[in-house]
Batch of 4 targets.
Target 1
Amino acid sequence: MPERTGVLIRRNVLIIFMSVEMMLNAVNLSFVALAYHFMDLNGQIFVLMVMVVAAAEVAVGLAIVMTIVRRKDTTNIEDVNLLKG
Amino acid sequence: MLDTAWLMLLFPALGTLILAFFGRRIGRRVVGWLACGMVLLSFLTAVGVFATLVGLPAEERSHQIVLWSWMTTGAFHVDVALLIDQLSIIMALIVTGIGFLIHVYSIGYMHDDARYSRFFTFLNFFILMMLTLVLANNYLLMYVGWEGVGLASYLLIGFWFEKPAAADAGKKAFIVNRIGDFGLALAIMFIWTSFGTLNFVEVFEKAPTVWAVGASVATITTLLMLLAATGKSAQIPLFVWLPDAMEGPTPVSALIHAATMVTAGVYMLARSGALLSLAPTTQTWVAVIGALTALMAATIALTQTDLKRILAYSTISQLGFMFMAVGVGAYTAAIFHLMTHAFFKALLFLAAGSVMHALAGEIDIRKMGNLRAKLPTTYWTYLIGAAALAGIPLFSGFFSKDEILYYDWLTAPLLWLVGAITAALTAVYAFRSVFVPFWGQERDKKLFSHAHESPRIMTVPLIVLAIGAVLAGYLGLPRLSLFETWLEPVFHAKAPEALAGAGPEAVLSIPMVWVLLAVSGLIAIGGAYAAYRLYIVNTDVPARVRERLGWLVKLIENKYYFDWAYDKGIVGPLRQLSAWFADVADKRGIDGAVNGLAAATGWVGSQARRLQTGMVGIYALSILLGAVALLAWFAIR
């Protein structure tokens, strides 16, 4: 699970973001494979669903990344800690 | 005429409302005469009703007039209704008649007071409530009047509330009365649970069948009534408010704290005579409390130097006499004394007010002297009042006091002895309050030179009351007893078997009656002569008595330490308790619990905030661990 590791240990927002995308694609791949294995069309259709949501998520996510970069001039996730209690 | 009896209540009610809303706009003259006029109209109505009753045969003189139904819930039903009978009409005549004279007097006495219209609003309100009290046909409506006169009393005692002493006295009167009112409220509840009605006539009809003589419920109920009466009528143990109430304007002392309101307790006990006669224990207590109070207050009155306070203690003492009469079942004698006392005590207070008026508010009799030269009308009327109070033969107090002593003699000679001693003391202090201020040498030259007789508007009521104080007694002449015959149906129709065999029914041989009469006359004259010796001839005797019996004088001058005992025994501990509640229970207990809860929440929060590191990686890791843990749980299960 290299993508999962990428989300957890990387510091660069863009890398984390790309890792998230890769996780989604990994899920898609397993959907397709298992749908073929069980001869069930639902899995194939769900992949299309995930792709739509992923596209929307990219649009929002990249916008957030852009804002972070504009505000803090960094892509390092550790500098973004406004939620610290 | 009976159908219009409610007009008695309407007039003072109208007066109160008009004065309360427009009193400041209509001008002083109108305010004064409007207030007097309303009470006069009420008095004329009462006279009309009285005349109607006189025209009826004795057994048809009790009428109930239902004005409207007040409340009905389940079996509980109370009307706003009047009971017009021989007793209530006598009370109404006293209240409105003497009330009218005092209203007129107040026009002169209060003429330059800033809150003139407010004063008359309160006075009219008092008349309204007092009439409600005496005319009500059930205990609950009487209770309304009972509380109403308490409120009026509070407002009028504290009328000059800029004076802290007056404000405190008002509060004291209200709070002490509250203890008694609590007794009355409980008594009314007992009556309701016993009889299922609060109507006087029905209750007294049912009483002998529902309550056995001496039954504990009868005793408890009547003892609670006695508690209420001791509060309103200033008897031991609740008399302490009345002397302080003298802080109010003098017409108030005359109207409320001498003639009418303080007699409400006597009226209530006499009205409930049918219940009282079923509880011999309570009757004994009433008589004992009355006797003790009469004696105690008379001794205190001897040592007071404040003219109004002498009269206040004398009122307490005379109320004690009325209680003695109620205690031995001589209700007519109690009401008779109530009536004569209303005349002569109102007269004495108004005359004292006239003295204060003349001396720019001075009230200490040690600074007065030889005032009869300057204030002839005040002096003569005061003298008549004092003679009536002392029980000098042929004045009203003589007949009524003698009647009480006569019944005491019949029931318990010991009570008679206490009564006779008190009567002697009464004569001494009554004439002390005549001789010291009005006779002898002027003591304060400046005060004396400024003294002037009061205006006619004040002296005319004095003269009218003085005539009443002389003549009222003849209504109850022994062997003729107009008054007794008049009231007899009220008291005897209620509990015939309970009273039978008791003292008042027994008749002494005629010579004994005259002996007792002569004895009480001699006591009064002897007391007056003693006062003459003590305060005019040998003025150094009181000082020598003081030297000899210093401890006794000190005890009496400190009013038997009642106020001190209440202060130490009740007020002090209550204050300490409330201080403890304020400083410890409230601050540490209640505030502590709330603050502790807040602090605990804060501490938990400060610990929990450490979880929020702000590091996205750690959040992601915890999501992963959570997911794994959930999966593991499902897998293992």
Note: The CA atoms of residues 555 and 561 of chain B lie 7 Å apart.
Target 2
Amino acid sequence: MDIPYTTTPREDTGLYNAKVGIWLFLASEVMLFGALFSSYILLRVGADWWPAPRSILNIPIGTFNTAVLIISSVTVVLAWASLKMNQLSKFKLYQGITILCALIFVGVKSVEYTEKWKHYEIWLNDGSNYSGHIDVNGKHNPFFYTHNKLVSEGVTEITFTKDPHKYGDPLPEKAAGGGEAHAAEAHAHESMVIKTEDIKRLSAFVPAHSTYFAIYFTMTGLHALHVIGGALVMFYLWITAGSWFRSRPEQFTNRIEVSGLFWHFVDLVWIFLFPILYLM
Amino acid sequence: MSLKAFHIAFVIITVLTSFVIGGLLIHAFLKEGGLWNIVGSLAAFASGVGLIYYGKYVLKKLRHISYL
């Protein structure tokens, strides 16, 4: 027995079942991400101090990833339109580009995450604190070190290389002759040896570091999981396209439309995430 | 709502966001200076304008497909 309304619209909704299903699912996704966006806003307006994201996150990389997702939204529509015009080979090309864009996005995001996980902030017992990179027992830029981990490994001292601009501080104001900027450059990458006993807290830029990184990793991580999920579905549709489209063209075209709707939602979430997390 | 309708909505939101980002980068340029801020701002405005033309192209290309 065939499943009804996989290609023809139901009389009551005017839509085929999969489309009703994906919109119900997207409605639940709106609530999920809406809750996170609300949390972000409340955390930010309630905070005494909030880091300047432009001094922490890599804006050119974020911009590149935004462009990649916008391009993938274009290709996913072109893939669907190709099927509507009965052009399977063009569909395969555009769907392949969409999957490639998804892989590029996730790859770039993983590079961004890796950079954060070996970037540290250190608080010393004398009240000072710095951001930068560490060397521990000859290991350059190790991941996920904390003060407790240094103590448990018996590390007595680390080498700390300071950032030109401390984590979270606004970038220097435009000054006549660029004096302040030059002064900051002069102190760039200044290294110092710090004894473990002088350290109050050491944390990489991981969710446990601060509220900012907790919400940053939660939102971008959840979004990245959606990108991976969408890419897996589109990959499955890509490799099964030939036989499926030849036997049930309308059903397959509908599946592509449904996956495209999900993909547009994922891209739309990023369109809001990028300015909020990277620029504001 | 079909993929066509969602795509048009996506393009409109992206155009508006591009102009907002362009404005934010101009603000950053006036505050901090920096070549990248002004280049980014111009790129954001150019993307917004480009996407408007793309939206018109999509409307024309997909005119036979339903919005539902």
Note: Residues 17-116+211-279 of chain A form a domain with the Four Helix Bundle (Hemerythrin (Met), subunit A) fold (CATH 1.20.120.80).
Target 3
Amino acid sequence: MYEIVSKKKINEQVEMMEIKAPFVARRCEPGQFVILRVTETGERIPLTIADYDREKETVSIIYQVVGKTTQMLSGMEAGESLLDFVGPLGKASDLKPHKRVLGIGGGVGAAPLYPQIKKLHEMGVAVDMILGGRSAEYVILEDMFKEVSDNVYFATNDGSKGIQGFVTDVLKTLLVEGNTYDEVIAIGPLIMMKAVVEITKPLGIKTAVSLNPIMIDGTGMCGGCRVTVGGETKFACVDGPDFDGFQVDFDECMLRQTFYKEKEAHACRLDQQKPE
Amino acid sequence: MANMSLHKVKMKEVDPVVRSGNFEEVAMGYTLEEAMEEATRCLQCKHKPCVSGCPVNVRIPEFIEALAAGDIETAYQVLTSENKLPAICGRVCPQEKQCEERCVRAIKGEPVGVGRLERFVADYYMEHFNGKQEKATTNGIKVAVVGSGPASITCAGELAAKGYEVTMFEALHELGGVLVYGIPEFRLPKDLVKKEIQKVLDLGVQVHKNVIVGKSITVEDLVEDGFKSIFIGSGAGLPRFMNIEGENLNGVYSANEFLTRVNLMKAYQFPYTNTPVNAGDKVAVVGGGNVAMDAARTAKRLGASEVHIVYRRSEEELPARLEEVHHAKEEGILFDLLTNPVSIQGENGHVAGMTCIRMKLGEPDESGRRSPVEDPGSEFSMPMDTVVIAIGQTPNPLIKNTTVGLSVNRKGCIVVDEESMETSLENVYAGGDVVTGAATVILAMGAGKKAAEAIHAKLTQQTQE
Ligand SMILES: Cc1cc2nc3c(=O)[nH]c(=O)nc-3n(C[C@H](O)[C@H](O)[C@H](O)COP(=O)(O)OP(=O)(O)OC[C@H]3O[C@@H](n4cnc5c(N)ncnc54)[C@H](O)[C@@H]3O)c2cc1C
Ligand SMILES: Cc1cc2nc3c(=O)[nH]c(=O)nc-3n(C[C@H](O)[C@H](O)[C@H](O)COP(=O)(O)OP(=O)(O)OC[C@H]3O[C@@H](n4cnc5c(N)ncnc54)[C@H](O)[C@@H]3O)c2cc1C
Ligand code: SF4
Ligand code: SF4
Ligand code: FES
Ligand SMILES: [Mg+2]
């Protein structure tokens, strides 16, 4: 069992938990994730390691409540325990000692981006950040990012914070203004990452993205998380989740993510009874 | 006077129509009377040919003799002196290629139902006796076991019984390896696997689930943490795909994913359990082994109306257990033999059909098997909404990639000394599917046992020095 050491609400839909997990805390690095299970009948879901503390043997996760399992997670309080919590999974991000990097975080995608930006900052890399969301309250971790970046820009759909528009609008402006970056790291909805790459690829600005296909084991055992990168099939849980954005087949990823849409909605609506 | 019937005493099975709609166990097992009757078919051969057919040399005539006399407790003790997981082996061993193949009764008629009797003794004992295991006094020497499949369970049990402080590390949230995530409930009930494994753990094995060696902790860490020997029984869990067009469409599963969703995550009880599976209505399972049979029968139980086994060789070459092929046919699984997929077609990102080509058997190769060759121009397409690929698994490279100096062969299998099961690293052992590639439960158990003996011998020697 994995104790919830603390829990915090970030906004209406996004929460943060600190979990006691000695085996994960011992070896985890930015870019890696965990897979957890809340109860005996629950499913396994992946969440990025947003932060960790090796001394306290804890790992932080930040999740958006979108369906059945994240709702169940949201129903848990500090002091209670999660049934399963395994990691660290995936490859650590390949963070290079660049001069200047631009981070782009869309919605809850800001969470997985944070440990990478923090690490880059510690490495002495200059970082600019673009944070986006539906409206001001969906822009998360602003204060934490401000501590580790030179500039933080905002974009919201309704204009309630930063410009009205998309993160890619800010990206375009920054580039037009003559800002140069050695690398862009974009994490958010697939459609956002695809749009970012459509801008950076023609300009040849190296862009790392983090893919989030449907996973079960997270160890390379099922192949459910397969994605096409550079024309080759990769398992995102072991070969990723970070990939070279120029090489990713985003359209395939988007289709694969929807495979269980109907059943997921069903799981969310039903009060489940044990079948005979 | 022995019972000279040419046939095994029949074992009751759930009717194929009824069972293909649920996940209950198909073969119902013997009653005490039936088991004792079958036991009297054994001739108690002095030269025991059956025993040499069993990879762990179960003392077959001896346990059957006790059973025939109605002494189940003795039968169980004799049986488990060589095989710690009899309820499992009795159900899943390919007996027709092992113990039963060598049985003298098979010369004329059916062999003695060794597997069934083994299963009976184990089930009966668990239900009626449930004797607590005595823990050995600890010798204070720490040994780590990686994985919790049959190889690791056996190795852990043997060492714990000798007093070693054994710690088991398992990547998943359940113990048992393929026994829990691969082989379906209707063939091997999970409650039973749990009980059988618990008996071994009761000998004093400490367990860490949710720990992936190579990720959460490395082999090097284990050495630093004071483990004197390490046994790797991480199996062959990496699914192979065909590398054909359309393989990443929604509706194409590896057998591992399909079976894991259903068995480990119990998707057949969705939405009571929260993991979904989309079995579809028309399902093609590619492959001809146990894994393929399990996937096909599972798809049927999830409601598919038409399930095909698509296999590139002929019936004779099907590698699955005979009983599984037989059960699959009874349940209405269609066999498309000498057929091989060429590509998968999609509609809106979802499988809509599969194009196959007919095969012919060519000349026998070095192994004596006739290899299939394509029959040019014989392509045809089958409308499908699900394709499950069950063409084999190889060892997961996670441990190899994170362990400096660990030798593996061309196929990624860990190389060991065949006598001791020791790897290229001193005091690091391996056994089971991670060494042989996908094989059988009993071979994995045999390897775990052999490694335990070698570990004990070497550590005894080292502590005396
Ligand atoms: C490597 C990785 C890292 C992730 N990190 C985070 C994170 O830090 N914070 C966060 O909020 N979310 C993260 N996600 C997404 C998160 O796993 C899903 O939001 C979650 O599984 C939804 O579960 P649900 O039952 O609440 O919702 P559901 O209604 O069941 O699903 C909603 C959507 O989530 C996705 N999803 C469903 N099941 C899975 C699954 N087993 N694996 C992956 N995706 C699934 C699908 O696109 C689905 O349509 C990550 C995903 C991956 C693969
Ligand atoms: C669907 C299916 C049906 C089968 N049917 C039969 C049958 O009828 N009869 C028969 O004899 N055989 C059958 N087999 C084969 C048999 O199950 C295997 O040969 C046997 O289970 C191998 O045992 P093992 O201990 O080597 O590995 P496994 O059973 O594969 O167990 C390996 C364990 O190690 C864990 N692991 C892997 N990597 C790590 C890591 N890095 N750190 C920690 N843990 C790790 C895995 O999660 C797993 O639990 C079948 C196999 C499948 C897939
Ligand atoms: S363990 Fe398997 S091969 Fe050995 S006697 Fe039992 S059923 Fe036969
Ligand atoms: S070969 Fe057959 S008949 Fe002879 S001892 Fe073995 S099981 Fe009994
Ligand atoms: S989640 Fe199963 S292989 Fe990646
Ligand atoms: Mg869900």
Note: The first strand of chain A starts at residue 2 and ends at 9.
Target 4
Amino acid sequence: MRSIVPAAAALAAVLALALAAGATAQSPDQKVVLTVGLTQDLDSPNVTVGELVSSFELWNLQYPTLTDLAADDLSTAPGLAESWSSDDSGRVWTYTLREGLEWSDGTPITAEEVAYTINRSREEEWLNHYSTVQNLTAEATDERTLVVTSSVDDPKLPGLSVYIVPKHVYEEIEASEIGKYAALDGVSAGPFSLKEWKKGQFWRMEANDSYWRGRVAIDEVVFRVFRNADAMVAALRSGELDAAHNVPAAAFPSLETAEGIEAVEGEQGGFDYLVLNSYAGQPPRDETKFDAPHPVLLDLRVRQAIAHAIDKETLVERVLSGLGTPGTTISPSPSPAWMPELSEEETYEFDLEQANQILDDAGYTDTNGNGVREHEGKDIVLRYAIRTESEYSKPYAEFITGWLKDIGIDTTFSSYDDGQLIEVAGKGAFDAYVWGWTPFVDPDPMLSYMKCDQISVDASDFSNFWNDTGLCDPEYDALYAEQNTELDPDRREEIVHEMLTRWYTNAAYVVLATSPDLQAYRTDRFSGWVRQPAEIGPVLFSNSSPSYWSLEPLASSGDGDGGLSTAAIAAIAIAGAGALALVGWVVLRRRSVEERE
Amino acid sequence: MSVRFVVGKVLGAFATLAFVLVFNFFLFRVVESNPVATLYRGRNLTDAQRDELTRQFGLDGSKLEQFVRYVEQTLQLNLGRSYATNRPVIEEIWAAAPQTIALVGVATVISMVIGILMGISAGWRRGTTQDRVLTSTSMATWSTPDFWLGMILLTVFAVQLGLFPTGGIEDPTSGATGFAKLLDQAWHMALPCLTLAIAYVGEFALVMRSSILDVMREDYLTLARAKGLRDAQVRDRHAVRNALLPSTALIAINFGFVLSGAIAVETVFSWPGLGLLTTEALRGPDLPMLQGLFLVFSASVIFFNLVADLLYPLLDPRVRYS
């Protein structure tokens, strides 16, 4: 045994030294640091390139917006602009900027700076700006006055919450080079500026002294990327993290009951839906290149029967572990006001008997008694696609195809990763699958995805579509065009309600459930967490992330995250010394034994 | 060692590598994918931009043209561009490799030393309680899944006891530099390294034990004892030296697996090395990245196998260069 004792002791000594090293490496300064865990790295800090939620959080903290989104209901609130007014046409808006605005490097923010971002992003069609600014022209009439003119009636105005970038940095970058710009300049006019990004590990931001709301109470915010969500939850429990985003559903219930931790189901309008392929020849496409849906799905009665056959309550309980709420219509915005109230007659209640009745009445019967209804003498078998990248896709499939079986519809399965499924969907080579959407603040983009011109017809690029149902409803398109230029907010809301009710009735999308962001934060470190929108939304990674400038460190919090107490360091030092002594003793003893032998 | 033997082994290694190179190309093209469409969905690319991206990803032209270009580029150490980041694969691998080499290298050395010592003492006292304890411990650690062990150690040492961090390679807020930074990294490496060391130690111990058992029957041990040498001298000078030979091969081969050895453990501890790069690439799937990693992993295994082949005859003159 004696030859392993020293080895084991040596290992113990090494570990103890590593520990002591860690203890001394802990910085003793009293910086107030907010550490947030997440499972997704930045794709790019460059606002013309990035598109992940993590990157949007970075921009929310670094770049100002002309108008902000109110924390409680996402309505238009003052940002860089403190006030605004419009002319009689409603197309020309004059914004007045706050006094004394500055970038973190001391450069003043003038109306000219804001105009620069709006005009350049329109000309160059920047990814995250273009949909908002495509019809706008901006002009600075003096230091603090910005006139924005829209070439169309645009109900989104005066809201203009695109990220404003520092002109003095960006004017150095040519249009052809801008996509390659690393954007690590750290010039900020938000609460924090980016100081360091270690790809795949973390990014670190420091408070901006010249933030227009005043310097925030936090000195630094660190976003740590975890590749193992369970380890992230462990880090939250151990106090290494102050908050975590994208908590795994399996760990969520245990965090809900954990002491000192608040678990948050943050609704931002995201939802899961069952899509039924309903392409009926409009708009026309080269049928030799595309696949076609099962013909029964073109019969509205069949889709309605399927809608009646899906028990959303059970899906929420059994598939989503109770996280989320049963769905109704599409939700086009994080703000629930845009969703219509469905009347009882309009709603497809879960009722297998009624579903079977509808199919019987429509003449789809099971003549050979094998449990499957027939269409033109053949069993009705739908092609159901499963997403390998979603943990819920399979359990959803099991429940849904079980109910389909109950109403006499059989299914076959194929599995795809998301890249493949987009192509399969674009080709129309499926009958049903479950996927999800998360909407922007304004309902317009989400509503636009269901238009006829968003159906896949481009045989050279099967991913060139958004309307995965293939259902073309010209009446819906007409309503879309109407809301798109309706300047009266109440009237616009009415139109949107009508559109969503129509789309619900078409039953090409069966919205299954909301898909909340699962987050959690420690209650012993900071106070002032803000849910956006109020009461239902998430505390982080929301549309304008107000928590960061609202948080205050709690007096008792100190710097104790993950650090070791003096007693622990002493204990480790003693253990290390003990282990070394043991090694020495064994070696000496061994020598003396050999001498005796 | 004859030149012929060395040349033969080296040629054999190159032939294997060439096979991997060819196999790699076809393996990662079984799945049809169109990264340009997937990555740039909804961005209104012009046809020219689309063609340019397709060209950048090396997906233009026929399969044969692609293959020829792939071989040419690989020979120039150009492994293509990652679908996920649109950066050269070789740069990403180059940036992640040092962390993996540090982690798995240290773990391999620790487990090698401890494992060999365990094997010697178990084999030398075959049949005793000590042997049974050591052997069953080795069996147990060898068969433990490393990601599971990692989660257990993480829960105990990082969450319950709070002694080590839960993951990552450094404390983002410390701002430490130089030696302090190195210490911080050592502190972060302790748990993943311990996990791997425990996972590897059993294999070394069991191989060493069985080699010791093999040499124990040899005549030269009887002779050594007859000469009147003490037990420890017989063991250290005669038994262990000869028994180490099979372990040398094992060690060399194990170093070949250093690069690819910690995929699960790196993921558990968010350790930014090649393993993490692999799990990340699997998600996409980022085929050029996977292809590049696969090639690098294979090359490393082939190289260390060659080293083992060449080393063996040097250490043991009984091995003929046939």
Note: The two ends of chain B are 10 Å apart (CA to CA).
